[in-house]
């Protein structure tokens, strides 16, 4: 025991480095980061809801397919919420929230990817009345519109995967963030921070 005490007294710089907290280990900085993550989550979710009809028209999806895309966020969220809530309390919560933010960013990038991978709109001068809304299900003589059916299925799966990733990434943000704030502020300030 005396040897350990002598080592700590011999190396005062090492003790100073351990005692200095980082400028990021502040509850107010954490609160700003938590608010930014929740704002990003809400923005991406609201944007998806606003472009669902555009996705339906652009990729020739049915309403049920659009519903699956919209509900994929909750599927990803529900898949991990029990594990994250239980094991997250025992782990380093800010790191888990940061990892969730990275997964959310990846999901947001993947949800924007179909816009860049799909072919551009082609404006035509004539309107063909003989083709219905789902031109690939009609038996018409021209196979030109049906050439990108596999591309549409890939975009559909990409959008589902992106929403599942967004749901997985958003899982630790709310429950772990609120509990972390509640544990690290005074009881009377807890409701103000939350």
UniProtKB/TrEMBL annotation:
SUPFAM superfamilies in UniProt: MFS general substrate transporter
Membrane topology field: Multi-pass membrane protein
Protein localization: Membrane
Keywords: Disulfide bond, Membrane, Transmembrane, Transmembrane helix
Family annotation (InterPro entries): MFS_dom, MFS_trans_sf, OATP
Location of the Major facilitator superfamily (MFS) profile domain: 29-194
Domain of life: Eukaryota
Major location (coarse): membrane
Transmembrane segments: 27-49, 69-89, 96-113, 154-178
Keyword field contains Transmembrane helix: yes
PANTHER family to which the protein is assigned, alphabetical: ORGANIC ANION TRANSPORTER, SOLUTE CARRIER ORGANIC ANION TRANSPORTER FAMILY MEMBER 3A1
Protein's name in the database: Major facilitator superfamily (MFS) profile domain-containing protein
Native source organism of the sequence: Cirrhinus molitorella
